[in-house]
Design goal:
Layout: H1 11-60, E1 69-82, E2 89-102, E3 108-110, E4 114-119, E5 122-128, E6 132-134, E7 138-151, H2 158-164, E8 166-173, E9 176-182, E10 186-192, E11 195-201, E12 206-212
Antiparallel strand pairs: 1-2, 2-7, 3-6, 3-9, 4-5, 4-8, 8-11, 9-10, 11-12
Length: 213
Amino acid sequence: MAEKPAQVYPGAPANVVHKNDVESAAANSEELRQKKRIKYLTYGIAFVVFQTIVIVIFSLTIMKVKGPKFRVRSASLENFSVGSSDSPSFSASFNAQFGVKNTNFGPYKYDNPTITIAYRGTTLGEATVSKSKANLLSTKKIDFNTDLNLASTGISEWSSDLNSGILPITATSSRLNGKVTLMFIMKKKKSTQMDCTMDLVITTQTIQNIKCK
């Protein structure tokens, strides 16, 4: 007896292919969603890291408040007169330019300090500087002048200083108090003092070798 040929079902292959396509599409869709999640997560982490770096830099630079520097920038003399080794005396008009250097990212408003010019601890003259403001990242220049006078017999170094031709002068101040304003709302107190030394050269009647701490 002849064998019956295998029965072929024309619709079967189509059903199998359709099922495989659906499974493949679902797998691809899930893979795409997974890649998007990973991408968004990476972007989120990168954004958080970037924000952290910006905040740290902002805190260490812009928001970090430093004390100002109060110094003598230049000085000169007029109407100079000096006594002898037996008669310690000295007089002159002292003209100087001071500077309040503000290195902060906000203006520094300060009160009026008193400046004292002295020789060997003896006051020659003093005057008060008017209150003012040093703008952000700038130096406020202050013109200063006062009369210097010395009439003392209790300075043991006078004769040797006179013979050397140089009188050591100091310029000091009372505490310079003020506030730095950041972002127009935040205010922080900062203070400093002037502490400078200089040489008064008798022969040339000039101020030289200015040094400030």
